[in-house]
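Follow-up to my earlier ticket, as requested here are the two runs.
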Amino acid sequence: MRYDVDTVAQQDSDEVARAVVSVRRLTAAVAAARSDMPGLSALASRIHALADDLEARSCSAAERVNQMNTIGRIVRYSPVVGSANVLAAPLHLRHIGDGNEGTVTFSVAHQGSLGVVHEGFAAMVLDVALAEANMAAGVPAMTAGLMLRYHHPMPVCCDLTVRAWHVYVDGRKSWCRGEIWWEHDLCVSAEGLFIVPREGGARGQDRQG
C-alpha cells in the first residue's frame, strides 16, 4: 500500500500536537504542585509508567533528526514555535510588512524569579521573531549576535506581545530590532545582527525601520 507522505505527516503532526498540549499542561501542573499534595507519590508513579511506555515506542534520536529534514518539520518541532515540541510556549507570529507581530504566554514552568518569566526565554523568542522579520523582508539569514535590554519583568500566565522588524542590510549583514510588551509596559528590547549565507545572498533592499 502506498501512503500519501503529506497526509501521513499531517496525521502524525495532529496526534503529536495533541499529546504535546497535554504534556505542556502536565508540566505546568507539576511546576505548581505542592510537596504535601495528597496522592502525589501515586501520580508520580503513573507519570513514570507513561514515560517508560512512550520511550519504548518512540523512534531513536537519529531517526527523528532524519524525519525533521524538511523546513516544515523543522518549524513544527521548534522549541519556540513548534506545535510538536513541549518546550515551546509556543510563540504565535504573523507577518506584517517587513516584520511580524505575535503573542506568547509563558506558564509557571518558565518562571525564574517569583511570578516572573526567566529572561533567557525572552532571548529565545526574540531570536526567532527577528529571524522571521528577516524572512518577511526577503533576507533569510543566520543569527550572529543579539543584544537585549530588560526594561520590565515579564509576568507568567499573561499574554505578551512580541514585535520584530527588519532595519537594514549591508552586504551579507542584516540588522533587525524587536520588543516584548506586557499591555502598556515595554519588557524587553533587542537588536540583532544576522549574516546571509554566502550561497544565498541578500534578496532584500536596504530598509529603515
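Run two:
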Amino acid sequence: MTRQDRPSAARGAARNSTYGGRSHEERAADRRSRLKDAALELFAARPFDEVTVADVCSRARVSKRHFYEEFDDRRDLMRCLHRELIDWLFEGIHRGAPENPDGLEELFRGMMSAWVGLLREHPDRARVIYINAPRMEMRRRGLMRRTAELFGRLSRRVLDRPRDRVRNERVQLAMVSGCTQVVIDWIERGMVDDPDALVDHLTGASVALMRHLEAEG
C-alpha cells in the first residue's frame, strides 16, 4: 500500500491534528526535510544500494511509519531528491549567465563558473547528482539533455536563432556531454584540480564549438 492508498478518513484526521503547537502539515514538512537531508548525506557517502530505509530513518530520527507517509520507498525518495538538486543546480547556472553578455566568452564563463562553483561548494550534492544515484547512466543521459536545452536557451542571448534546429541541438548536446564527462571526472577525483583552470577549459572548449556552429549557420 502506497501513501496515497491510506483511507481518506485517516488522512483527514491526521491532517487536522496538532501536537507541540505545530500542525500536522508543519510536522510533516519538518520530517520530509530531515529525511531528504539524511538521504543527501548518506547517498553522497555510499552507493544507493548500500543505503536502507532504516539507515535514512535513523539518521533523520524519523520513524519508518512516517517515512512511508512521505515516500513510497528509497527510489521515490531519491527521485524527489535528485529532481530538487537538479532544479537547484540549473537555477544557479541560470543566475550565473549574464543578462546582456558582450559575447560567447562572457556568457559561457559565467555559466561554467556557476556550474563548477556550486558543485565545489556542495560536494555532497555533486556526488548525488552525478555519481551515486540509481540507474545512473540513464539519469545522466536525461540530465545532459536537459542541460543542453538550458545552455541552448541561454545561448540565444548572443546567438541568432539557428536555421538548422536539429543540427544545432545535436551540437549543443555533444558540447554538454563532453563538459559533463569532464565535470564527473573532476568530482570522482575529489575536486582536487584548480577550479579556475577547469572553468577556463570548459569555457574555451564550449566557445570554440559554439563559434564553429555560428560560422556554419
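The only thing I checked on run two: The radius of gyration is 21 Å. Let me know what else you need.
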